[in-house]
Amino acid sequence: MFKAAIRVNKITTVAQLRGSSLHAQRHDITGKARVREGAEPGFGLAWSKAENDRDYLAAFRAHKAELKAGERKGAPIALQALCVVSPEWVEKAGDLHDPDNPHNRQLFDQAKAWAESWAGEGAVFGSRLDLDEKGGAVVDLMIAPVRTSRGKPVISTNKAMGEVKALTGERNEYSALQTSWADWCRDTLDAGIVRGTRKEITRRQHLSPETYGAVMDKARESLSEPSQKLVEQVKVADLSEDATQTLSDLLTLKVEINRHKALGRDYEPPESGQRLDDVYEGLSNNPWTVINAVRHGAQRIYDTAGRLGLSIMSYWGDDYEAGRDLFPNLSDRMHLGAVLAKCGDFMARAEQMVKHVLNPDVPKYDLRSLWPQEAYGQVERHEINLGLVVPQQEHSITDRRGVEIELDGEDKDRDVGIARDTGHSI
Fold first, then answer.
1. Phi then psi for 414, rounded to 5 degrees?
2. Whether the Cβ atoms of residue 269 and residue 298 lie closer than 8 Å to each other
3. Which residues partner with 126 through β-bridges?
4. Which of 212, 215, 325, 390 is the most exposed place for a label (fewest CB within 10 A)?
5. Per-residue pLDDT tens for 273-295?
6. By the 8 A CB rule, do 23 and 212 touch?
7. Buried b / exposed e along 400-413 (16+ C-beta atoms within 10 A)
8. Does the pLDDT of residue 207 top 70, yes or no?
9. How far is Cα 29 from Cα 265, in angstroms, rounded to an integer?
10. What is the distance between the alpha carbons of residues 371 and 288, in angstroms, rounded to a whole number?
């Protein structure tokens, strides 16, 4: 028995399309990292409405011109759908990474046909089946359904998804797409293909397309039942105190790595579990009672990594080699670097904000002077490397004398979750 799964991301900006193109062309760090050893970057099956099959921004513009379609203000401009089947189904007919494998060809063609069966003829403006990665059996579709509104053609992802929901009878649009794709696979590819395990599908509308690799991995994971092998081994293992602590630390960091993969820029360190009214009692003039309470969750992760010999400084460069023996996957190490930077940044900001709240007459401390000092500015660097943000260009102006003046952006304080009223947990 083989399984089918779908993952959908709403694209809301042109910048996301541009980022998706960079990933497809393997120009971003995430795309490069996913290429398996010995493979040619960008190798695979690809098609789009643009001259360059992997230029989705150009393809989107060609799509709009072809269908004479406009956009709704503030509405999604496209959908990115990852259409997945069990890799074993592809391997039944040949090599997983062979473009001439008939199952790869069938999957590539039928994914596009499925999308246009509900989104409308010509709704797909880009399609890709990467064969340069370790995994396979995933078709990446770019879809912009067009519907008529007030007599004019407009892109409407919500209306198209609502129509799928009505056809399948599912409770929400995402489950409807999952069911629809599985039914299509069973009818056109193999009668032995069934719907993947029901899981909540990512619904974040601002997931950067260029970092969809993590979502793709999740889609693949949904095609198999969770393995109990590790759990069984731990049950029977005779672990020393040190080995138990190391295993516990590894699992703790793995949880945070997976949280960061799922949440991206929305990731926040674990909460402390304490309440402000609990720590304010008997505070006197010592701010550290509150500071330590606020950043307890973040420091727990930071200290856990420290016991394994890892810190923000371990990922100061961009090679992400530190911790390879503990976390063999480059993706895990990249996300771990981002987690440690976020936790360190949170701790420094917690000290800054608590001291300011308790003594507002004193100017805020410079974040660069607060521990861990090496955290300053590192969150954005890791997010850029992961493709979660677009690098900001430096700006300058020229004065009347023709001298170039650099414009420094003001460091905006981030909310560190310190509740102002004592009824909120921190």
1. -95, 140
2. yes
3. 48, 142
4. 325
5. 555 555 555 555 677 888 888 88
6. yes
7. eeeeeeeeeeeeee
8. no
9. 17
10. 13
Q: Which tens digits make up the pLDDT trace of 120-146? A: 999 999 999 999 988 889 999 999 999
Q: Tell me the two tokens of residue 147.
A: 């519907």
- Chain centroid to Cα 88, Å, comes to 26
How many residues are present in the chain? 426
Confidence of residue 217 (pLDDT cuts 50, 70, 90): low
Q: Which residue has the tokens 């039928």?
A: 110
pLDDT digits (tens, 9 = 90+) for 292-317: 888 899 999 999 999 999 999 999 87
Half-sphere exposure of 391 (CA within 13 A, CB side): 9
123 with 112: CB under 8 angstroms?
A: no
What are phi and psi for residue 3, nearest 5 degrees?
A: -125, 160
Residue at token pair 């945070």 = 256
Of 17-21, 230-234, 330-334, 410-414, which range is least confident? 410-414
C-alpha span between 211 and 325 (Å, rounded): 24
Return the closest-CA partner of residue 7 out of 204, 192, 170: 204
Q: List, in order, residues 6 or more apart from 161 with CB less than 8 Å away.
A: 79, 173, 176, 177
pTM of whole model > 0.85? no
Three-state SS at 194: strand
Alpha carbon 18 to its chain's center? 16
Q: How far is 180 from 170, CA to CA, in rounded Å?
A: 10
Task: Give the tokens for residue 309.
Answer: 């010999």
Mean pLDDT is lowest, of 8-12, 87-91, 151-155, 203-207, for: 203-207
Distances from the Cα of 33 to the Cα of 132, 134, 173, 329, 400, angstroms: 11, 11, 32, 10, 47
Contacts (Cβ under 8 Å, ≥6 apart) of 67: 122, 146, 153
